[in-house]
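mind reviewing these tokens:
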Amino acid sequence: MTPSIKTLYETIDYTWPSASIQVNQGWLVKNGLGGGKRVSATLQLDPQANIKNAEKMMEALSQNYLFMIRENDSVLDHKLDKLGYDLIDPVVIFCSPISLIDKSIKGVFHSKPNTIMKRIWLNGGVSSARLNIMKRTKVSKTFILIDNKAVAFVAIHNDIAMFHALEVLKEYRREGLAKKIMQQINVWASTNGAKFISAVSVKDNIPARNLYLSIGMSEVGYYHYRLKP
């Protein structure tokens, strides 16, 4: 049975955490410290919460007016649309049970990223602020490097191993490295007690979505953002 969408949303927050959160007046306001939308978007906790209060809290953090719209947030989505907020970056959540593991594969897993990993990530546009997200993740986690050409970050919460920042050096793409690193993710996840693997991808990232579908993952949930221009 696939984990509930609520469980998957929670797993995203635990495996890719904000620097801090503030719960007030029916809102959960995230401080992302420049780590991107996922760690900076505000969530509605109370359907009656006043949008202006959320805007004031985001302004106090010097952040954009940015909301994450999850399932059951259709009323908020409509209100923000009427207020001129743009719909941006629809995201797909993927999940599947841990696949059968080739026990002959011996993974090499790292407790922290080395210089090569950081270079690959920075070369692929994964900023130092996003590397800090990996560093502050408190749940069980690992860093995977394949042939000094591909990297991924994986963390476990709710028996779900969610991987982030899977990056292959541009000159080595289409050589099967992404599928190879996916096998390593399964090895580590299985060894550490996870029952599922999961990932998120913006809807427009067709190569990533095709990769996840090709290894048997399914689209199990969605969310998007609303941004004030």
The first helix runs from residue 5 to 15. The chain has a mean pLDDT of 94. The chain has two domains: 18-91, 94-222. The CA atoms of residues 91 and 228 lie 18 Å apart.
